[in-house]
Amino acid sequence: MKKYILSFFTIGLLCTSCNDFEDINNNPFAVDTNKAEPEYLLNNSILGAQQDPNIAERVFVLYWKTAARQHLTTGIAGGTYDDSWTSEYWKYISDWLNNANAAIQLANEKKAAGQGKPYYDNVIQVSRIWRAYLMSEFSDNFGPQPIQAFQGTNPTFNSEKEVYYFILEELKDAVAKMDTTQGVPSNANAYDMVYGFNWTQWVKYANSMRMRIAMRIAEVDPSKAKTEFEAAANSNMFIASSADNFKVAEKPGWDALTGVMSREWNSQILSATLNNLYIGLGGVNSTDQLPAAQHTQVKAPDYIGIKYDQQFTTMTNDPSAGYWLDGLPNKIDPRAYKTFYIPGDLTSPVYSLYPTYTNQATTNHGDLTFEDNSKITINTVNTWNAYTIGNWGVKGQRNGLRNVVGCMPALGKQYRESKNARIFFASWETYFLLAEAALKGWTVPMSDEAAYNKGIQESFVYNGVSQFYGQYITSTDYNRDGTSVSYSHITEPGVSHTMKYKDPVTGNLVSVEIKYPVNTIYKNGSVKNDKLTKIITQKYIANMPWLPLESWNDQRRLGLPFFENPAIETPLPNLPNLNSGNYMTNSIQNFPQRLRYPSTFRNTDQSGYDKAVQLLGGTDAVLTPLWWAKH
């Protein structure tokens, strides 16, 4: 990686004019070590990793959110990739890693020169903790990476196992060496936008990260995972409340602090995956969540919608495929209406801030064309639908509703106007990790049920729906995937459930057996409502929308939650395993597993590239599983 690893990760702190932090911000490697401070470089790394709109659109939205099924986009979820996006990300994350490493090196150099300050040792530990996160992000996306490159030496590639072991050791050692009684740098909040150099908070983050990485390898290296997880969890120093969350405030504009989901042209429409999890889950009536004016639009609990099988794909194992709900669901997870706006609901506090979307919604019409070329116009105000990704063929050409912003639920403005705080690690994730660990029989401070319920509670508080928590956690209602909330309720839902649909020609209601989907990746499809499915379902919903990479990681690691196969009315060339004969069966070959290494790497360092692919254990392809995901 002569160009994209060596030049970015090998640090040279040159003695040129540098008067303040702004100079370092412009050129972090051309600094006077007598005037520079390591916290400047650490700040540069954390700041850059917030992702300016250029790279956020490509990576956070079009790669991570798409792979995690947080919105309606096929893209990488259909096996495609864009080498220019990946090359950009490679360059960006190299910069972030380089700055983190430079902070460590500069602190050590100044100490050796007798210019050290009391807090330098802690800044080194914080930089190591942050670097560990960046390394995990790198390997979670690509796979093998060079460990030594991040230590300022010539890089040689390491296996994913070696990388994750290194990350775990770094987190452990950094925590052991942190002096939480040490004073902080002056202007601490300016140079640590996360915790203001509150050393205890960094220790909590490091332990929670150690739990996350330990669980990442749990399916392939359970003994190591258990040892590392238990040590971190039993410290009782982890992210336990919203006050501990690792988050960075956004601001409007076009720089690294601009919101990662802020671009107007990324519609971020509700996905079928998420909608099938939401509907029915928790047993909370829509009428208890919405203003009285919308109550007449709430449908009966056994009503699935109008059957439009000439305009909606049925070549998928999406349990809602082929139906359009001409109203609002009877029961739905309370976080759904807080995260996505209802089409045409202009008074909603989360309604889109973009005029284009508002204008489309106020017209609130879309046309459906039938095989005989007749058309009907659909009013989408106060309706709630989500459609399967993939290729809809001629049915897509007949459908004037799919992908039309304003006619479908889409991401609320609170996540789009750059006035929020981007979350990198939240308290709910800690509790769901503890729940999974306890379920495995590991020794941790909480029972699996207590941790599971606490994770839900933390998510409910964040979303402002705590009033429904008590009812929600005792609910035995199944969602469309056949999963309920109550942790002790592990009764399987059966093969199908009876629903009614409206015939679009006669207007009559017709009974139909709607099959629950069979997730053949997880336990060969034998269960839909076991405890692990509940934990990961709740973790997935809670992580919406800030942590799509973690949601993608869980799906690759476990096959949970259920992801429907992309529609194949016309074959998808980048998912060759999926065809008209097996679209009801899930396979890891139907879902993206990683990002390909960029051509810039291959073209500038063929030997490094060859080593990386050798360690990957498969071809450099989107569908090649990572080491920890080979289930």
Sum this structure up briefly:
The protein has helices at 2-9, 21-26, 38-48, 53-67, 83-112, 120-141, 160-177, 188-191, 199-216, 222-233, 272-278, 336-339, 355-363, 393-398, 427-439, 448-463, 469-473, 531-542, 548-558, 599-604, 606-616, and strands at 246-249, 303-307, 323-324, 340-341, 365-369, 375-379, 390-391, 410-411, 421-425, 496-502, 509-515, 567-568.
Describe the structure.
The chain is α+β, with helices and mostly antiparallel strands. 39% of the residues lie in helices and 8% in strands. The chain contains 21 helices and twelve strands. The strands form five sheets. The protein has a four-stranded mixed beta sheet with strand order 3-2-10-11, with no helix packed on it. Strands 1-9 form a two-stranded antiparallel ribbon. Strand 5 and strand 6 form a beta hairpin. Helix 15 runs antiparallel to helix 18. The chain is globular. The two termini are 30 Å apart.
Q: Which ranges are low-confidence, i.e. pLDDT below 50, for 5 or more consecutive residues? A: 1-26
Count of runs of 4 or more consecutive helical residues = 21
Strand content: 5-15%
The percent range for helix content is 25-40%
Number of strands: 12
Q: How much is the radius of gyration in Å? A: 25 Å
Secondary-structure content class:
alpha+beta
Overall 3D geometry?
globular
Across the major sheet, the strand order is 3-2-10-11
The biggest beta sheet reads: 4 strands, mixed
Q: What's the rounded overall pLDDT mean? A: 92
- Cα distance, first to last residue? 30 Å
